[in-house]
Fold:
Amino acid sequence: MRVPMIAGNWKMNTTVSEAIELVNEMRQGLDQIDNVDRVICPPFISLATVRELIKGSSIKLGAQNIYFEEKGAYTGEISPLMLADLCEFVIIGHSERRLYFNETGEITNKKIRAALQVKLKPILCVGEKLEENEAGRTEKIVTGQLRASLAGLGYPNGLIIAYEPIWAIGTGKAATGEQANETIGLIRRNVAKLCSEKVAQDMRILYGGSVTDANATEFMKQPEIDGALVGGASLKANQFLSIVRQTSEIRGRSSRGV
Ligand code: 13P
Structure:
């Protein structure tokens, strides 16, 4: 039984007071929707405040990054132990981190291990660039990213994967439901090989890249897609609510919902 999940990646947006405002705008509406995990991932500086705000609500909390060491002289970094106290999920290996902060497959692997050790649930992002897509290399790229990030993990309890084609992120040019479904099916088959068939069948695999309230239904209707990782549209309370609501309507009561 895979519970659908919609996660909002706020990226480097919102001051603490804006984060409070946004949570207040969406909390009540989200609490009226059933059968979908709804997660928000604000910037680090707002996590503690937002955690207090969502106590007793249906909203779950995630961070956008993590460092793999437990503590020490790593100026500016945030450790797994610090996050374990604050939230349930952590995004790892987002393409923006791979692109601007040189994160490699080896680093994402270390971060996933560090997160799992403190029982944080990683949301691992994978996805190909436009030129790779156009050259028909999607399968090769995504498979390589999975191999590197999941190496030696065995049974990564609670791990979630988000397929985010880089050409679809922030461009308004989302993949089609069929394209995303096909690649997510491929990801699941790879997880079966790298981990186990059971891990693959239990794992939630999300689509991310220009998801809005206008196209959410298209993705949620696809059998392999278990939800979405939403960027821009998660910063607008009414959009995020609508995406969660549509997911609940389509997937919440299906055989794979709760
Ligand atoms: P957009 O929804 O803004 O395209 O961003 C997707 C994303 O990168 C989520 O992690």
In short: Residues 9, 94, 164, 169-170, 208-211, 229-233 surround 1,3-dihydroxyacetonephosphate (CB under 6 Å). The longest strand covers residues 121-126.
